Amino acid sequence: MEPLDTGKQPQFLTKTIVRSKINLIELLQKLPHFTVSLIYSLCLTFSGSLSQRSNSLLEQYALDRPRLLQHYDDYGAEKLVLSHLTPVKATVSVSLSLDLAGPVHFPQHPCPPKAQLTVPCAILGFGLSRRLDAKKYQVLVVSPRSYFVFTPLLNSTAVGTLEFRTALEPIRRKRSRVDYFQAWAKEVDFASKTVRLEGSLIEPTVTNSNAGSTRSDRNARGEEAKLLEKTDRHKGKVFDVQYDKLVVAVGCYSQTFDTKGVKEHAFFMKNVADARKIRKRVLECFEIALLPVTSDAIRKHLLHFAVVGGGPTGMEFAAELSDLLHDDLLKIYPELKQLVKISVYDIAPRVLPMFDESLAKYAMSVYKREGIDIKTSHHVKELRLGLPDDDVGRTNVWDSQGCYTLRTEEEGEVGVAMCVWSTGNMLNPFVRSAANESRPYPQNSAFETGETASHRPEDLRWTIKTDDKSGAIVVDDRLRVQLEAKHAAGSRRPDATGGLKDVFALGDNAVIENVVLPATAQTANQQALWLAKRLNKGDLESRTFSFKDMGIMTYLGSAKGLVQTPGTSISGISGRAAWLIWRGAYLTLSVSWRNKALIPIYWYVVRCGVRVLAWVVVLMARVQVLELGFWEGYFEVLGWSLCRLEVIGQAVFDV
């Protein structure tokens, strides 16, 4: 490589390089990665010419390293995708043609034969795949998205406390030995040990310009989408993948209880796309309310934010939204201060029922001071677009400025700006279809656990055993999926029971037989860690899973929280100390070192009074949209610098 022209080097390195006559690229390669990234971020805070020099400098330095590129899916959600600056030799290249038929063996790494382990998964399956021994297992992750979402941080991203990238983890990494298919799991054949997958395709009718399109354009696309629903053009091609061990960790969907209009009009909190929609809607409501043509009645509805669900997720979002309103938006829109309202609806007699009564009372006092209206014992019956008690609004909803009507059994119709729905989880369709399917006895991968003298297993039809109350998959104390074969009604023979040796289920879609565990993230995380450890050591038959309750925690707003730990003399912790524990726990649970480094910086920036709102997207495009003071401008530039730091963040922080 030709030596760099020293006249084009950053000034603070020029003298050193001239005196020692060392090639600058060689010098940077000798420096620790973190030192190089720090120099790069500092360069970005100076003048444009120096920034351009540092860009050129680091691009040459990173020629042999992957870049972490940010792409937005059709709903505006960020996807993290790895690309290389120079061609990289791949061990095996697999292309799925349109006429693909038969089972597919995923790419083989150049190493001795290993057990093939397929993981159709959510974030806990992602954590499991990262901890499996690559020398023993060749892991294939199946997911419709190429990234995973750390859902506990979605509330913070929705209000701008954190940026969306801090809640995302890409599956494909430079040093990862995990294979990946972007597909949906359709069904499983336990006898032949194959999983049927459907390629995950992007809907052709959804575009990034949807948010700024006209009403006629949206209606046209809506008609086109309805037409596509009647055809198979938007479906991916189906293919089979063989496995030696299968881990089902597919996650759950939001439970709507078939409430009228909720699926169509509610805002959920399951993905980054949901958080982005909420952030956009909040800012949009304030801007519309400030227009001189907006009436006082509609302005009141536009600034009423409703949350349905009094569990930790719903209450944390209400607290985060309250912080956004009081710390930032009401200072930007002071004339709207008296109209802003947050209401939480829950069917239970009190919110946060999993906490002790004393802690729950403390939480209620904090919510009251924050101006959050808690409405317990309320039954939501309908959510529709339009104004309350307005027949015209039902037919001409655009005249209502996008307001919604929330109807409860106790209060009737109430106008709201949006309704965030957080009332629990429902089973994944893949789990429901697999559990309902009747199948022959899988002789090579099953074992019997019940009465065997009165029947032959080959003569019965078997189904996956499910929980009578929740419908979740029943597993044993080793997390293995259980089977059952019921005899005809009136038969005196006992039902046959069995299990699958090489099929495991984790998380919200599985329950351990005769054991009641909390449906929380820590339960799923402990299951994933335990199973990975047992598979790596090969001692699954001699060990059983045991849950260790680490307690529960939640955020209340205004830097206050609740922490309840069982088995201690202290009933619980509340206030600022609990808030610090809450933040520390989520920071520790973040997967990559990149996010572990970025999250505290974003927290610090927000504490300094500069919250990263929706216009940070424009800021990343190097367009200054706000007239800021010195310190505010500095932190905005620092935030932009961190975005640029993502270019080499994968090489620096990836583990």
Explain what you see.
Helix content is 34%, strand content 22%. It has 19 helices and 29 strands. The strands form 8 sheets. Strands 3, 4, 5, 8, 9, 10, 11, 21, 22, 24 and 25 form an 11-stranded mixed β-sheet that branches. A 4-stranded parallel β-sheet has the order 15-14-13-19. The longest helix has 24 residues, at 630-653. Mean pLDDT is 74; it is low at 1-25, 40-113, 203-233, 391-395, 612-634 and 644-655.
What's a concise summary of this model?
Helix 3 runs antiparallel to helix 4 (48-61), helix 5 (123-131) packs parallel to helix 15 (521-537) and helix 9 (272-289) packs antiparallel against helix 10 (296-302). The chain has 19 helices and 29 strands.
Chain-wise SSE layout:
Elements: H1 11-20, H2 24-30, H3 33-44, H4 48-61, E1 66-72, E2 78-84, E3 103-104, E4 115-120, H5 123-131, E5 137-143, E6 147-149, H6 154-158, E7 168-170, E8 178-189, E9 194-199, H7 215-229, E10 238-242, E11 245-248, E12 253-254, H8 262-265, H9 272-289, H10 296-302, E13 304-308, H11 312-332, E14 341-345, H12 357-370, E15 372-375, E16 380-385, H13 391-395, E17 404-408, E18 412-416, E19 418-421, E20 425-426, H14 429-436, E21 446-448, E22 463-464, E23 473-475, E24 480-485, E25 496-505, E26 510-512, H15 521-537, E27 552-557, E28 560-564, E29 573-575, H16 576-589, H17 593-607, H18 616-620, H19 630-653
Parallel strand pairs: 3-10, 4-5, 4-11, 5-8, 11-25, 13-14, 13-19, 14-15, 23-26
Antiparallel strand pairs: 1-2, 6-7, 8-9, 9-10, 12-20, 16-17, 17-18, 21-25, 22-24, 24-25, 27-28, 28-29
Helix pairs in contact: 3-4, 3-19, 5-15, 9-10, 17-19
